[in-house]
Amino acid sequence: MPFVTGHRYRLHWEAGLDFDAMKIEVSEMWDTNDKDIRMIWNHTEKREAVNITSHYGGGADTILVNNNTLTTLSTWSSGDFQMRNATEVREFEILINGKDATRNNLLVTPLECILGKCKLDNVDELDLPDKSSPWSDPATWGGTLPAEDDEVEITTKMWVELDLAETPRLKKLTVNGRLTFKDDAAKTLKSHLIWVRAGELLVGSAAAPF
Q: Based on the domain organization, do 173 and 112 belong to the same domain?
């Protein structure tokens, strides 16, 4: 898609930065007097960092743009960016212009885990009970079953077995403990976002797929 210079664009995915890679190309029509373009993506816990490289990420002349150059430099070229990780902000902003020809073809790669190791704040080690508790039992959830549009967490101390034919459509389900499916009949788990953050989601097996 093309973009007009001198503007800021907010590109939105519900879950935030929900792509593995994106190419950005500076047009040959870019004039030296053209203004910058800024693009902003929202992001949630799905992404922890971003790599931005020149030449679409390949070749001996590939450049890796330093982190947060929008805040540390006074003049900018394509690919300079800022990753805002504060809970109330959570945005990724990148600048595009035609001032540096070596950065005309960029590859943007969001990373779920820096160096392959995720740091999850405020998550304990799994301390699961010896047996599961049924989803349909209010006691499993402290007295109240999950309802439509709820944000639900299965904590590190919970092992929940889905025994309902169909759940309400949740707003978000975070699995920090263990969630399994009872295999006596078909089950449907409904949620706008399901995030297996620090736990396990076990459904069927290779021999008996669900």
A: no
Burial annotation 168-186 (CB, 10 A radius, 16+ → b, else e) = eebebbbbbbbbbbeeeee
Locus of tokens 């998550």: 123
| Co-location of 61 and 142 in the same domain | no
Q: Mind listing the pLDDT tens digit for each residue in 63-87?
A: 999 888 998 999 999 999 998 876 6
Alpha-carbon Rg for the chain, nearest whole angstrom, is: 22
pLDDT tens, 98-117?
999 999 999 998 877 655 55
Within-domain flag for 122: no
- How far is it, in rounded angstroms, from Cα 22 to Cα 132? 42
Domain range holding 35? 8-116
CA distance 43 to 85: 8
Q: For CA atoms 98, 114, 157, 209, give the dihedral sign.
A: positive
Mode of pairing for the β-strands spanning 105-111 and 22-25: antiparallel
> Does 74 fall in a domain?
yes
111 and 15 in a single domain? The answer is yes
Question: Distance of alpha carbon 154 from its chain centroid, rounded?
Answer: 19
pLDDT for the residue 188: 93
pTM: 0.55
